[in-house]
C-alpha cells in the first residue's frame, strides 16, 4: 500500500507544480487553491508512504515523479522546449527511480 500512496503523492506533486505555474504567483484564486490542496494531499500521502518505506527511497521517487511529470506537462501543455539533452536527463531520472525501487527491498 505504501507504494500506491507514494505514486499518488508524486502525481499530486505534478498537479501542484502545474497549478502553481497557472496561479501566476498566487494571484489567481482557483489555481492557487488547487495548488495548496494538492500540496497538502501530496505531503500527507508521502508521510503515509514513509511509515514503511525508507526516507531516501520515498523522497527520491516522490521528487522524481514530480520532476518527470512536470517536465512532460511543460512540454505538452506549456510549449516548453524539447531537446535531446532534456529528454536524456528525464530518461536518466526514470532510470534512477527504477534502480531506487529495485534496491529498496520493499
TrEMBL record:
SUPFAM superfamilies per UniProt: Multidrug resistance efflux transporter EmrE
Membrane-traversing stretches: 33-50, 57-78, 84-102
GO MF terms held by the record: transmembrane transporter activity
Coarse class of the protein's main subcellular location: membrane
Localization in the cell: Cell membrane
Keyword Transferase (UniProt): no
InterPro entries per record: EmrE-like, Small_drug/metabolite_transptr, Small_multidrug_res
Entry keywords, A to Z: Cell membrane, Membrane, Transmembrane, Transmembrane helix, Transport
Recorded topology in the membrane: Multi-pass membrane protein
GO-annotated biological processes: xenobiotic detoxification by transmembrane export across the plasma membrane
Domain of life from the UniProt record: Bacteria
One GO CC term, this protein: plasma membrane
PANTHER family, alphabetized: GUANIDINIUM EXPORTER (PTHR30561:SF0), SMR FAMILY PROTON-DEPENDENT DRUG EFFLUX TRANSPORTER SUGE (PTHR30561)
Record-stated family: Belongs to the drug/metabolite transporter (DMT) superfamily. Small multidrug resistance (SMR) (TC 2.A.7.1) family. Gdx/SugE subfamily.
Name of the featured protein: Guanidinium exporter
Lineage of the organism: Bacteria, Pseudomonadati, Bacteroidota, Cytophagia, Cytophagales
